[in-house]
Write a structure and sequence with these properties.
The structure is a single chain. With 143 residues, the chain is α+β, with helices and mostly antiparallel strands. It has two domains: 2-33, no CATH class; 71-142, OB fold (Dihydrolipoamide Acetyltransferase, E2P). It is 19% helix and 25% strand. It has five helices and five strands, in the order H-H-H-H-E-E-E-H-E-E. It has helices spanning 2-10, 22-26, 29-32, 42-45, 102-106, and strands at residues 71-82, 88-92, 97-100, 117-123, 135-142. It has a five-stranded antiparallel β-sheet with strand order 3-2-1-4-5.
């Protein structure tokens, strides 16, 4: 136990040089204000200072602690709509293919029909070109 305590007191990168202040952190209001058992990102809380300013606790060479999930929006005309199969299949004019369960299909904003414009928002990094499936966040049909 002594070596672990020494590690905590001397750790500089992972713990942000807490040192002897570790007891103060665990008894502080900031620690009590956790969101679902995890600290919120400094980008979300707005407590992170400008990356051009060096300050204690966040060195300039360390990456940001942003917790956002990247998303991609695809839009096109509905070319294929197969509602009589499970899962329900939709193919857009830009080549995007989406599969919906019946419950997901009912949550689509607007009425899907051939020729309508559909906008789908996926949880996916914009530069990800893999053929793997992505989680669908939102679907909207216009026209």
């Amino acid at each position: 136990m002594g070596k672990f305590r020494d590690f905590l007191l001397t750790e500089q990168i992972g713990l942000g040089d807490l040192g002897n202040r570790i007891d103060t952190l665990f008894n502080s209001q900031k620690f009590a204000n956790q969101i679902d058992g995890a600290f919120a990102s400094t980008d979300v809380t707005g407590t992170e200072q400008s990356p051009t300013l060096g300050y204690a606790g966040h060195s300039l060479h360390l990456p940001s602690t942003d917790l956002t999930i990247p998303s991609v929006t695809k839009s096109g005309r509905i070319m294929v709509l197969q509602t009589k199969r499970n899962p329900i299949f939709v193919k857009l004019s830009d080549g995007t293919e989406a599969n919906f369960t019946y419950d997901e299909y009912r949550k689509i904003v607007g009425e899907p029909k051939l020729g309508s414009t559909m906008t789908i928002t996926f949880q996916r990094h914009p530069e990800d070109r893999m053929r793997a499936y992505s989680k669908i966040d939102q679907v909207e049909v216009t026209d």
